[in-house]
Structure prediction request, 133 residues.
Amino acid sequence: SVWDWDRFGRNQFLGEVRLPLSSADLDDKEDHWLTLQDREEGPEDAFYRGQLLLGVMFQRLDTKKGKQRGTLNILVKQARELPSTDSKGLADGFVKCYLLPDKSSGGKRKTEVVKNDPNPVWDARFSYEKVLL
Prediction:
């Protein structure tokens, strides 16, 4: 999920990307632009929220009982065209990454805040170890 950081209030939700691992090509070494959507499931809403450039790769370690175990690597590269959230027409964007269904603090990863930029670049790498697929 992409958020706008706010020093004096609550951070503002800008949009999210859901990537079901069961349908993702985890051997693909290319980064992909994914359109940010609202939290609601269903058809995309009419409000364009920008895009997020992600790279996702799974390093297989072994297979047990028909399930593959390994490390899931995620590259949060950048976003583009984030909606403006302040009077200057800019956003202070950051990304929160969860490996669902675990939403505990141990499963959460977060980028740094990039201030005053509707096209922030993070180049943040996150790893989740001992993932079963």
Notes: The chain has no helices and eight strands.
